[in-house]
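sorry for the late reply, my laptop died twice this morning and i had to redo everyting from scratch. anyway the thing you sent over, i finally got around to it. pasting the sequence first so we're on the same page, its 364 residues, then the predicted structure underneath. double check i copied it right bc i was rushing
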Amino acid sequence: MARRPTGRGGEQPVASHRDDEVNSSEASRRVAREPNRVLISLNPKAGARSGQALVGELRDGLIERGFQVDSTSEIATLTEWAAASLEKNELRAVVSAGGDGTVALLANHTPPGTPLAVFPLGTENLLAKYLGMTAEIGQFVEAVKEGRTVTLDAGEANGRLFLLMVGCGFDADVVRRLHRDRTGHIHHFSYAKPILDSIWNYEYPELRVMCEFEGDVGQPPAEPISARWVFVGNLPSYARGLRILPDADGRDGLLDLCTFKGGSIWNGLRYLSGVMLGQHQGWEDCTTGRVRGLRIEAVSGEVPFQMDGDPGGVLPVEIRVLPNRLTLVVPRSYSPPNRSDAAGARDAPAATSPPGDAAGTESG
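ok and here's the structure:
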């Protein structure tokens, strides 16, 4: 779509009546071609409240700004709407009204290139915090209106996308217990009983990790890693702000790996202290690295894994990175976190606006 004239480089001629008609016609065609449909996907079980009132306010705010808005809590309906609207170049954004699991669900059910806008109504809302998206109606509507997006990698575990991380071991056992007994909305206190149950009952089985590390192309397979805790991250975000994978970068075409070898709650407390102090990566019983893909399996028994805070199933799990798989709406203030050793990471693409929008101008 043609950019609006800037008026730079000399005097502008006085427009004739005919010029006005032509410009008006061109403007009408330009607006008609701009994606103008917003789809809202609501997870009625997300977080400590349903968020119905906030979603209603959001819908009203988007309509006031001229968008065609449709909402549903049925993922099959949303999938059909999104695919059709994207193909017709009508789709401005799919709004994920829920927590991190809701965004992951949408990513798994919408085509590549679908712009996802995270309206955080969950418990942790880690992806929203990373992107700078909030549930403040005015700011969120403005972000959708401006249409800035950023492209990030995704991970894939046994054929399903994850956006943040995969965990195997104690944390996955907690998640499994939480969701098995879940009856309503989740809040931070909901984790108390599952954590206590896992402390008393989890046996820390041995896990075997086979990796394709960064730079391993054409090389013999690396020796398997023996561990009791395994974390694989696309982004550095983890619950309660823990920096288990502080250098994970969703723009580098790789996943970050962290494993711990000790298998007891006392070792777990020691690892937690190391993470909080930022010292764990230098410990002898902690292995870290960047991988293109990996396989995690249990030496014996049934061991769960979790994806973005939701149950993922039981091991084994095959994991790989999908570069540039995600398109995410970001606010004007978005700035990707800098990795401490970002040498070798591909340059981060600047947040982009929809086709036809001049940078820094409103559209749609």
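The chain has two domains: 29-148, 160-323.
thats about all i looked at so far, will dig more tmrw
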